[in-house]
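Page header: ASSEMBLY MODEL / two components / 862 residues total.
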Amino acid sequence: MNDFERSRHLHSRAGFGGTYSFVFGQSKHSVKDQVKTIFKSAEKSDVFDITGAKSADLTEKKLNEKERKLRKETASELTKKLNVTWIGIMAGTNAPLREKMTLFWHGHFACRSNNPWFLQELNNIHRKYALGNFRTMLKAVARTPAMLLFLNNQQNRKSSPNENFARELLELFTIGRGNYTEMDIKESARAFTGWSFSKESWEFEIRGAQHDEGVKTFFGKTGNFNGDDIINMILQDERTAMHICRKLYCHFVNHNPDEKHVAELADIFNNNDLELAPVLERLFTADWFFEKRNVGCLIKSPVEFLVGMLRMFPLTCNSDKTILAIQRSLGQVLFFPPNVAGWPGGRCWIDSASLMSRLKLPSLLLNDGIIDLPLKEDMPEELVIKMQEREKEIKKATAKKIEAKMDWEDFKPGIKEGKTGENFIPFILAVPPSPELSKSLPPFKSEYMKMITLQLVSTPEFQLI
Amino acid sequence: MKRRDFIRVSGLASAALFIPQFIRAGVKPIIGIPGGKRLVVIQLSGGNDGLNTVVPFMDDLYHKLRPGLAISPSEVFKLNEYQGFHPALSSFSKLFEKGQLAVFNGVGYPNPDRSHFRSMDIWHTASGSNEYFNSGWIGRYLDSDCNGCAQPHQALEVDDSLSLALKGEKRKGLSVKEAGLLYKSTKDPFFRNMADQNSNAMLTDDNLGYLYKTMIETCSSAEYIYEKWKTTESKREYPQTAFSNQLKTIARFINSGLSTRIYYVSLGGFDTHASQAGTHENLLKMWSEGTKAFVADLEAAGTMDDTLILAFSEFGRRVGVNASKGTDHGTANNLFVISNGLKKKGIVNDPPVLTDLDDGDLRYSVDFRNIYSTVLEKWMGVEASGIIPGFKPMDFL
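Prediction written out in full:
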């Protein structure tokens, strides 16, 4: 792997990739320095505020049917706005690692709500602690109305405990399946009884009358534990660090985890009081991160696919509809995870329909749906004219629908005339193109750059990072 | 079997042993076992109100708890002394009288979840309410080899996107709204070239190999479906609704001799929180009239004997009517099976008990996973325990 490919790998994993000149510029520095820069830029945070102040219109109260309908429509519009705005932030941010980690936590603490303010608040907690302390983040997440509602903790009362939150806390958020008993769930659920939020102020509160003050037995210890005690006890168990680090590894390195490397990360996590930055710093600088088996082995999530293209090319898309439709057709709509376990990822992204969409989308965004192919030399003139006219029609119809703008003039991927493209293919693809594809590519001359680009992005290879 | 036929079939079969089926686009699938059974799943999305679908018209509590929404005894189509169909389901009366319809009461699962998408997840994956599976039950049927079916078109969803139910760990079904459109999407000369040219070299075990395999299979399936599909045309009358159109597409697939084993289709809008009566009536009409036309289409073509239809919803609705003349999310519900091979016909089990509610909701008496297992084992002919472990088949088939 040369310096350019190394940079490309790093920035596509620790962020959403970038322009050719960005990747090329970075490749002049050592990995250590590049990672330092990545963390330095992640210190800043984008501001994500669509919904504004807590809106009184959205509080629970008796509404008539018309008001209820209006409230639902407003909420649905705002949630769409949240979605599209966040895509825009990811595409334009100068702190890509922070956004990448926010996206990671968005799937880890997966949540649905019909209240956009709740969703925004949860998302901003993920953003704030994206690279911070896991314990602090977990305690904040556990106190959000979004999560309290989603996991039915509003119904978790001393007289009739609801185990939903306790179960997901153990199974999905922290230590993982197989490391606790059903009794642990029952007992820890009691510790979270009364955890609720005020209907008026939307602030977290513990309702004393509903909280179970009795003695609980959890993880073999007995005491009058409250919710925070339970969280602390789970996080003290070293298997929690293993579970979180394995998930990070699968997400950022390889879907098939190397347990030795996971244990190495978990040690760092435990030794640094569950601070996330040291773990990620190690991950992105480790020699094994750059091993061949870990390069181009991940299937891009739909959001990585879309945001990656927006960052890679001088490309803008001004239609909210298009941004949302792409997510729907590829199977990942932000703020609509399939369930509390989040998006399963990996090969689950790919089925017949979603793959055909993935192959077609790049040419739709970059060239109104046309994948330019070289004309056959023996093609009769009238046929060529006919084909070109047909293409024009298709392009006109598509352009109106997609509302994407690609500035080919501004796309300067550093091509040297007559050479074999040098870094161009590794810029677009994380794996070498198939022999057949390589053979069919036109020569690397500036007049063919558009054609070559369109072919490379319309391949199975382009699905990988 | 004639000797000549035997040679031809076995010749293909032995060739298939040496060449993986997906190796090249254009290889026609050879598995579609003639006379094989097929399943059509109809999903009623949003939570169909079972109590106003199969009405316990003799239950005083039903009328008491649903003032203004209950269906009166004189309106229902009586199925027995106690329960009857909503008048909008009159299209089902013939099926009922001919013994082609089985109605299950109280179908659900322990610790029911009242969230639409979570409960739908549970129905799609056949999990318990405290388990999270990444694969659907039909997908796992594909994984289990379903008598040698290796092509995605063995399970087709007539929709834009593929439901979790049809996604397995290794294999996935195919979503196709229109055979022509899918075929067109794979016909771009650039994709065709890739699918045709790249054979062995790209079919590795890693993710890239998986992507190439999916692409090649999609192109091959799309072509197969399209070529078959265009040989048949349905001249039967269907109601003018989107749902009926989807059923018509399925009938056309079936009658064209497609080797697909499972079809999947959804009808949405059952989330009737407010002013339920009119909406619900329209939906029941859409569902039953479409289904009636579909069954008639298959019967005319002689393909109904090998077809079983299963209709479900992610949950029923609460017993009491709410303040907006609608009903809120509930639990146990009715499930419907239509087939010529029923051993138990009509109303299969006891009606729901309205005096014994769980916080205002019906208690389930049949686990839906036992019904899935029955269909898989006794209709589709695969061992259900590998797909839905721990749920024994029942005896209605």
